Amino acid sequence: MIRLNQVKLPLDHNEEALQQFVLTKLNITVQQLVNIHVFKRGYDARKKNHITLIYTLDISLKDIDETKLLASFEKDQNVRVSPDTDYQYVATAPADLKERPIVIGMGPCGLFVALILAQMGFKPIVLERGKSVHERAKDTFRFWRTSELNTESNVQFGEGGAGTFSDGKLYSQVKDPGFKGLKVKQEFVAAGAPAEIIYVSKPHIGTYKLVTMVEKMRRKIIELGGEIRFETRVEEINIEDIDGQKQVTGVTLNGGEVINSRYVTAAIGHSARDTFQMLRDKGVHMDAQSFSIGFRIEHKQEMIDQARFGINAGHPILGAADYKLVHHCKNGRSVYSFCMCPGGVVVAATSEEHAVVTNGMSQYSRSERNANSAIVVGISPEDFNNDPMQGVALQRKLERNAYIMGGSNYDAPAQMVGDFLAAGQGKPYQNVEPSYKPNVKMTDLSDALPDFAIDAIREALPAFAKKIRGFDSKDAMLTGVETRTSSPVQIKRGVDFQSINTQGLYPGGEGAGYAGGILSAGIDGIKIAEAVALKMIADLEA
Question: 0.90 cut: is pTM over it?
Answer without folding.
Answer: yes
